[in-house]
Amino acid sequence: MVNPGMVRDLAGTVDHQDADFGILVTLQEPTEGMRTEARKAGVYKYHNQRKILRLQLVSAANLFKEFLPLQLPPEEVRNGRKMTIIAEPGADEAKGGLFGE
Q: Source organism's superkingdom (predicted)?
């Protein structure tokens, strides 16, 4: 069962890793409480351009839609960045992804 605590955990990890933003992928649809927690994290603004949500939530089912329901920096920003996957050792599924410095 998904819950707001998972978003708070991701927020703590994003802060601890000094990442620009984080993405939480869940097997179930995120709850309204999870969306509220994600909004509390604010936005990430890159190169004084478009703002994107600092914490983004997406269900695994939505990953396969024609248009990915995520806000990402432009390609030229992403290409120069390292992607870090956060998962517990031996876990069957990833807890989410972070795009860090």
A: Bacteria
Domain around 37: 4-100
Global pTM reads 0.68
Q: CA–CA separation, 28 vs 92, rounded Å? A: 16
**Number of independent structural domains in the chain:** 1
What the block records as the tokens of 99 is: 């795009």
CA–CA gap between residue 44 and residue 92 (Å, rounded): 30
| pLDDT one-digit tens code per residue, 50-78 | 788 899 999 998 888 767 777 776 654 44
